[in-house]
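From the pipeline queue, job 12 of 40. The input is one protein chain; the requested action is below.

Action: predict structure.
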Amino acid sequence: MTPDGEQSPQRPRSWWLWIGYWAGLFVATHVPLGGKGPTVVPYADKLVHFGLYFVLVALGGRYLFATGRGRSLALLLTWAAVYAAYGAADEWLQQFVGRAMSAGDWLADLTGVAAATVVLSLRRPPPALSEHGEKVP
């Protein structure tokens, strides 16, 4: 409850989906891998990194859009920087669970972040307008 006795607003389902996915991503990238077998698809590992981070950013954008905060390009770019820093930390932490750090994996993460950020910026809702027709921050 809020201090004035009203019910607290529920978090949108998109928040739970985004945070749950992010937690699952953390767990998945910190589980030691067994032996690597040959892959049929060249650069399959990089495609997986791209896809995982693209989905992470897309889910975060879905939450921002659901709350009405996705209109701001500056906010989308700030979150892109957060995801980029997280990707770097994620790669660095993998060395402690028997996995290898890889600049190539981080670049694939960054590419997924950048691609999803571009898509989100193109799909942003129009700015809110006041009753006088001025943009509302």
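Job complete. Residues 13-31+39-122 form one domain.
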